Amino acid sequence: MSPAEAIRDLAQDAEAKDVLTLFEEVVIAREDLLWLLVLVPLAAAAYIWAARQRRRGLASLGSPVLVERLVGSVNHASRVVAAVVSVLSVLLLSAGLLRVQYGGETTIVPATGLDIVLAVDYSKSMLARDVYPSRSERLAAELQRFLDEADRRGDRVGLVVFAGAARGLPVSRDARVLKLYLDKADPRTENPGGTAIGKALKLALTFLIDARRAAAAGPEGGPTKSFPTKDGKAVEDIPPSESDQVVILLTDGEDTVSRPLEVAAEAAKLGVRIYTVGIGSKSGEPIQKFDAEGNPDGFVTDEQGNYLMTRVDEATLKDIAKTTGGDYVLVEPDKFGLDKVAEWIRDLSKGQREDTVTAHREEGYAFLVVPALLLLALSLALPERKKGP
């Protein structure tokens, strides 16, 4: 064998291996829709049945000579091509709906993930400008960085935004949704006003308990366990967590209405640690007020015209953290950052969740749907009649 022939054979072998590798990487994301392939033989059978019905109809007209004159201009070849092209388009569209995927990247999510809920104060006092450009905007930037690091660790993160009421998103690994939620949050639109720390912690615990129940039910779901109480009624059992669970509370105000220490005691019973972060100065900052359009409109005053101040309630925040085995840090204007919080999270005991492998594949439906649409257009463009002489 000559050197040129050997090189050609090696190239052919390499091409064959590449083709085999490509087919090995092709997967079907929607196997539950495989029944759509039945439409292909049904479409073919429908065209065959229609052709037979036409022949029978023409035969029933009587005179063969007259029938030949009537159908002499019909382009039978175009009809056959249109039928074949239409059946092929049905095949390609069905395959496209199956979401054929190929290649892509595989990501291993490590088993060091925690369940974290960020409870973020978005009361109007967070608009104070003792930090440039404001407390809320600086905090949002810091949280974006925190979420990036949590995503790299494989943490599941939930979010609670609160002022006088609390709302948020349950724990998940989709940091993009959390970032979008933070981008839309604005202290000027949070109603009612106030700083309901207890309500925020209660919602955060709800998210963490839901995560436990979802893990206990498994991927296929299942019945929730229950146990009888003293009065004979059955209540839901809260399963133990498969990983460490943490609430990070970030606030700049005082809570006098929602009893956060009682919620902290509930968290301690569940083994949930609460780390508290006080934002702002100990001496206090004047509370800014806004008009109906959300523009600054001076500062809030009491009946005597004195400015009302908002300050960090360090004693309460320290008690919340101590009750649950967490920790407290004061984030002051000249040292505004969440590095200490990130350090706490890194030092926590690692969760027991197993490593998971996530495959991000390329979607191949376009390679099927586009030709299918072109074939359909071709079938409609084919002439049914022959051109005259």
Overview of the structural elements:
This protein has 11 helices and 15 strands. Helices cover 44% and strands 20% of the residues. The chain has 389 residues and is an alpha/beta fold. The protein is elongated and about 110 Å long. Mean pLDDT is 76; it is low at 16-23 and 222-235.
Gap between N and C termini? 60 Å
SSE string: HEHHHEEHEEHHEEEHEEEEEHEHEH
Largest sheet strand order: 5-4-3-8-9-14
- What is the beta-strand fraction? 15-25%
Largest sheet: 6 strands, mixed
Chart the SSEs and their pairings:
Layout: H1 3-25, E1 27-28, H2 39-59, H3 64-71, H4 76-97, E2 100-109, E3 115-121, H5 135-153, E4 156-162, E5 166-172, H6 175-184, H7 197-217, E6 226-228, E7 234-236, E8 245-251, H8 260-270, E9 273-279, E10 285-286, E11 288-290, E12 296-299, E13 309-310, H9 314-324, E14 328-331, H10 339-347, E15 356-363, H11 366-381
Parallel strand pairs: 3-4, 3-8, 8-9, 9-14
Antiparallel strand pairs: 1-2, 2-15, 4-5, 6-7, 10-13, 11-12
Helix pairs in contact: 2-4, 4-11, 5-6, 7-8, 8-9
